[in-house]
Amino acid sequence: DKVIETHRTGYHFQPPKHWINDPNGPMYFNGLYHLFYQYNPKGSVWGNIVWAHSVSKDLINWEALEPAIEASKPFDIKGCWSGSATILPGNKPFIQYTGIDKDERQLQDFAVPKNLSDPYLREWVKPDQGNPFIDPDPSVNASAFRDPTTAWFVNGEWHTVVGSKKDMLGIAYLYTSKDFKKWVKAKEPLHSVQGTGMWECPDFYPVSQTGDRGLDTSAVDKSVKHVFKVSLDLTRFEYYTIGVYDTDKEKYIPDEGSVDSWAGIRYDYGNFYASKSFFDYKKHRRILWGWANESDGKTRDVNKGWAGIQLIPRKVWLDPNGKQLLQWPVEELETLRSARPVTLSSKVLKQGQNIEVEGITAAQADVEVSFSFQSLDKAEPFDPKWADLPAQDVCHEKGSTVPGGVGPFGLLTLASEKLEELTPVMFRVFKKGDNHVVLFCSDATSSTLTKDDEKSSNLTRDEMMYKPSFAGYVDVDLSKTKKIALRSLIDHSVVESFAEGGKTVISSRVYPTLAVGPKAHLFLFNNGTEEVTVDKLTAWDMAKPVMNVPLEKAS
Ligand code: DQQ
């Protein structure tokens, strides 16, 4: 079990080795945060899936326990797939997950703690009585029926949703129960959309219309809005809508303008999948966890002995504009910041200028920066042909080295000294009619000198490194402020970037060969004709937390 450390992260969630995917059943219970996740105990590719289990007091330092749920029963003998936790009345945690039976049918199973007085909830049991709690009826596609959500209580009944499809129709089947034992399928799904294919890992929760406090999943009344999210198996990205939960009709209805399907809004325009949120009773916030897969070829994943990370948990709440969510790394992350950050202020960046941010560990840092400029007059016109293309295509055409008007400007992260390797995180402003659009990019195109072995004739997609020009638009009116803010969490092979207080977020996985460890650099840059001022930059080295040390050793 050799593990190559080069691109392992310093402060992101990772076990010591092997493959991980979806975060499962996150919850806060009796003073501890629990994170379960899909894990292959035997290697660094997907397979042999169990629910690995870690606990934390602060969402940043993690101790590893034995896997909580492993294949052992007829109802999960071929795998224990994703699911959620619900805290039932009487303070009783309850896990709902998808078990795969011998015929590869997907069943909804449950597990409960063996001993509620164990503060770590180390052992979980899967009672024979009551399992599975949902068996797909003949009208359901049993090979596409998975990932039950955290249950919520309304109209005197518990409710849960299971993701599915019928041909290309994405479906969120709704099930209800009076006693959390016997579950009945509702006549109609909670929601379904034609043309989207399989809905993996659905998530459904209320958000407050005033302020950033999170709500319990059952806090359903007229004053709240609802968020519905799915992970699209076909495209491997997620989208969400904001809407209304009609509890009489048991239907979710997205708001007008909240687009369901490909063109919808995303939590993250980069590498972020199978996310799940939970209500944190301790701090009254809703927290979102997402998984970032490797972007490298499978053979290299196998050779390095590990694959997959969980991104930093984010607080999530409704933007005051009511049209989207805002996301921000949990405040506990700041405990890892060095005591003496590097700061810069009122630095002017002329076209073509790069300024190195010196004195930090650029491979493991947290950077906050605010930019301003005088005028939008020089903004380039927005090509009408881009209107129907993903932002990613625009970023691919207009990279950091393509001079512009207002932008591109931003950070060059994980850069080698002479910029042979770099992952620019940048803004570019376009004129569109009387308005402006703000493109935000995290461009992995030049992130590494590693070349795929093109001589190998049968190089499949899986074997190639993926270096996309990830991008999204930022819904902000710059004509008033002429200011924009950026925060990037840089951690060896991941760059997680938050534009304008968390309006648009992009995570990239990258594998530099030169910009590694102490040889990584960070620059500010501007390649637009309009001068840009760095009003303020603060860059912190990030300490290494306790990361999945086995519990006995850690305490
Ligand atoms: N991963 C799990 C499934 C889920 C998928 C299997 C999403 O339950 O649909 O590992 O990444």
From TrEMBL:
Q: Which UniProt keywords are listed?
A: Glycosidase, Hydrolase, Vacuole
Its GO biological process annotations read: carbohydrate metabolic process
Segment forming the signal sequence: none
Task: Give the superkingdom in one word.
Answer: Eukaryota
Reactions catalysed, as given in the entry: Hydrolysis of terminal non-reducing beta-D-fructofuranoside residues in beta-D-fructofuranosides
Give all residue intervals belonging to the Glycosyl hydrolase family 32 N-terminal domain.
Answer: 12-329
Entries under PROSITE patterns matching the protein: GLYCOSYL_HYDROL_F32 (PS00609)
Q: Which SUPFAM superfamilies match?
A: Arabinanase/levansucrase/invertase, Concanavalin A-like lectins/glucanases
Give the Gene Ontology MF terms in alphabetical order. beta-fructofuranosidase activity
> GO CC annotation: what is one?
vacuole
**Database matches in PANTHER family:** BETA-FRUCTOFURANOSIDASE, INSOLUBLE ISOENZYME CWINV1-RELATED (PTHR31953)
Q: What family does the entry list?
A: Belongs to the glycosyl hydrolase 32 family.
Q: What is this protein called?
A: Beta-fructofuranosidase
Instruction: State the organism named in the record.
Output: Linum tenue
